[in-house]
Amino acid sequence: MSISSADGMSRARLFSLLGKLAPLIFLLVLAITFATLQPRFLMPLNLFNILRQVSIYGIIAVGMTFVILIRGIDLSVGALVAMSGLCAAVIAHGGIEGRFALSSDGTGFHWSLAAFAAIAAGVVAGLAQGAIVAWLSVPAFVVTLGGMTVFRGIALTIGNGGPIAGFDEDFGWWGRGMIGPVPVPVIIFAAAVLIAHVVLTQTRFGRSVYAVGSNPDAARLSGINVERVTVQVYGLIGFCSGLGGFVLSSRLNSAEAVAGSGYELTAIAAVVIGGTSLQGGTGGVAGTVVGALLTGVLLNGLVILNVSPYTQQILVGLIIIAAVAFDHFTKRQSR
Amino acid sequence: MTSVGSLQRAGVQESGRDDRPDIQLLVRPVLEAQALVKRFFGVTVLDGVSLSLAPGEVRALLGENGAGKSTVINLISGVHQPDAGAIRLDGEHVRFARPLDADRAGISVIRQELSLFPDLSVAEAIFAGHLPVNALGFVDWKRIRKVAGQALARLGLAVDVRAPVAGLSIAQQQMVEVARALTRKSRVVIMDEPTASLSPNEVDHLGDIIAQLSAEGVAVLYVSHRLDEVRAFCSTYTVLRDGRAVSSGNVADTNIPSLIRDMAGRDIEIGRHGEVRVPGRPVLEVRNLSSQHLAGSVQRVRDVSFSVRAGEIVGLAGIIGAGRTETARMIFGLDPIGGGEILFEDTTFGPRSPAEAMAAGVGYVSEDRKGLSLLLSRSVVDNFALAGAVPARGLGFNDKAAEATLLSGFVKRLGIRAASLQSTIATLSGGNQQKVVLARWVARRPKLLIIDEPTRGIDVGSKEDVHDLIRDIAAQGVAVLLISSDLPEIMTLSDRIVTLREGETTSEQDAATATFEGLMASMTRHD
């Protein structure tokens, strides 16, 4: 082998490694920059603050990773968070004052029933959307764009346009509680990441997800039921959205129809920044964590640096584009 | 069928001797390809091919799959550029950097896979890329519709020029392509397997059109496997084999057996693999199978019958469009069965999905490795394990240790060359990829394995390994249905050979006594 081609090999390997670590490098650079400009950034309180903010859309981004891995997209998650949050709130309140009562004596139900209601609502909505995508072959973009409006409408209907606020302490623990120094939502997020990572890398279902996203025809010819995997994945992101909705209403001590707006784009951004390809089949949940943290660190750092909220938006958008462009650049070089 | 006599020969005279290049004595050729050489990734696929076309000449370009016909077309039409040699148009040396250049120079290609724009109207498709404009720079729709209508009328095609192309049959779409060539005043029209999807009547009509083009002085390069069409439509021929032009001359001076000999070119060592296998009980029986007949399309499988027994390799031979892959797809549950019957282990079999067929014990190695077999972005072991080579442990966890052990066995046995089992499959050579795909299915221990074009596009060394593996599989008692366009391959591997022609079984022969000529004759139509 000639020297130049050996150089070419190692160069490709270098860029391949760089490509894999690109989001992480980007995150570290950002964190170091903020820490240098404002030492307060590194205080444990602030770091947990970032994690707490990241965790709710992070949970949804975990589900979104599966969806994007099968070449899908889900624009309805933000609306689903609001809808399932309101479902939890209604159960926790035992009905809505002046409109209807679920319990005979007007008292609310246990938080576990509320959580179940939120998650069930999310799963049913996700499965329904998945079924339309898989069996009626309607593009996921369209189905979930429609779903976004439908679920937001249902949320408005449930709350009659207003918020449902005030939950008991047990309910509130899931969003505001701490285990030691760690906020509970952060633990939920970590658990979701861990489970998702194991499912994707160690199980038959995870392999099917990658296969469907990598080459649906080859997957079908290998005996994988592509439609069923699709429905399951949309059910899964429905689960994540329902869970997110429950935790969010717990943290805010209130559920309302405008909650979670914009989460779909934040979640998609986290997945894509994390290196999961919109073409499906490559990526994973580890990258998504980095992508979610990157967005969180960026927002937090800009606030700490007193950057105006208007400028913040501009910077966040530009940095998302830069991160993904860098990722693609290193992937191209590694070929 | 069009009579050969109606074709104008444009005074073409040729030596008729196989060992000399064509000599155009009377008419200056419009197109000359001189000693074209093309290499891909260091492999020479075309090695000094020359041919010429005079105005009005209809030349057949013949050859087995992989002989280099497509490459010749791609070089002449500017898809690829020759590594050596020259293309001359009216004696001038031309270089086409892209297809549009060749198109502008008056060379039209009517491809097997039609390149039309399905959403455009017929008139737009005819003028796509060179829409005429009026004085204001707006598209001159009136003129487009008028000229398009006239061109189609000349071809005897009565369709609304405003209708979308997608609504036309394949034959009609081809006519639209011809109309495009006519309005472009193309001087050379290349037709690549144009009759693969046509009914006999449509083929006759195409013959008339070719005669008409020829009469107008258009040179036609006609690429086809169907030798009877070559005899009816073409005045001259060139046979390619392994990237070289091995013979050429006047069609009138040759005959079909001699053309077949030129295409095959070698003595084929037939089927003799030492050990004699004793076939067991019947595993698969196909009786008068036909595919669903959808309106506006050709029914690909019309009447196919054959059987495969345990431990037996049955070769399914036929030219493109004969319905071989379509038959396999029905057996594997990919396409619905139109009529007839499939028996698997003596019971009626009609799988509705590959998963059902696999559960019964059928495996299918597709002919399209990249499109239908591989997950290109995934690892070697993921690709191997995709069809469930190793059952999952509890809770659906992959048994990665068992998968690695099993795959390592195949890596040794088949000589699979990969940096590691975790390498992306895309980094492997075609031959090694194919071995992984075969291992995927063999590991499942199927009762019936359908192998479609096992050695397409792989190197000679891997080809031997793959052949050995296929014999091995059969020796272990698996019923093997082998589909291949490579006749020598079918003849070497099979115990019995079933030939298909236009969706119908035409013969069943013992491989020991089958001849290349005999098989070719059963695969092609003779009138």
Helix coverage percent of residues of chain B?
Answer: 25-40%
User: What would you call the shape of chain B?
Assistant: globular
The CATH topology of chain A corresponds to ABC transporter involved in vitamin B12 uptake, BtuC
Helices and strands of chain A, in order, run as: HHHEEHHEHEEHHHHEHHH
Q: Examine the secondary-structure arrangement and name the CATH architecture of the domain at 4-106 and 187-264 in chain B.
A: 3-Layer(aba) Sandwich
Helix segment tally of chain A? 13
**Percentage of residues in helical conformation of chain A:** over 70%
What is the beta-strand fraction of chain B? 15-25%
Return Rg of chain A in Å.
21 Å
Number of strands of chain B: 20
Number of strands of chain A: 6
End-to-end Cα distance of chain B, whole Å, is: 9 Å
Mean pLDDT of chain B: 84
Largest sheet composition of chain A: 2 strands, antiparallel
Q: Give the CATH superfamily of the domain at 4-106 and 187-264 in chain B.
A: P-loop containing nucleotide triphosphate hydrolases
Structural class of chain B: alpha/beta
Largest interface: A-B, 20 and 28 residues
What ranges of chain A have pLDDT less than 50 throughout 5 or more consecutive residues? Answer: 1-8
Topology (elements, then pairings):
The complex is a heterodimer of chains A (335) and B (527).
Chain A: H1 3-37, H2 44-69, H3 77-93, E1 95-96, E2 100-101, H4 111-135, H5 140-159, E3 164-165, H6 169-176, E4 178-179, E5 182-183, H7 184-202, H8 204-214, H9 216-221, H10 226-252, E6 254-255, H11 263-273, H12 285-304, H13 309-333
Antiparallel strand pairs in A: 1-2, 3-6, 4-5
Chain B: E1 31-40, E2 43-53, E3 58-62, H1 69-76, E4 84-89, E5 92-94, H2 99-104, E6 107-110, H3 122-127, H4 141-154, H5 170-183, E7 188-192, H6 200-215, E8 219-223, H7 227-233, E9 236-241, E10 244-250, H8 256-264, E11 282-291, E12 304-309, E13 313-317, H9 324-331, E14 337-344, E15 347-348, H10 354-360, E16 362-365, H11 369-373, H12 380-385, H13 400-414, H14 430-442, E17 448-452, H15 460-475, E18 479-483, H16 487-493, E19 496-501, E20 504-510, H17 516-523
Parallel strand pairs in B: 3-8, 3-9, 6-7, 7-8, 13-18, 13-19, 16-17, 17-18
Antiparallel strand pairs in B: 1-2, 1-4, 4-5, 9-10, 11-12, 11-14, 14-15, 19-20
Helix pairs in contact in B: 4-5, 14-15
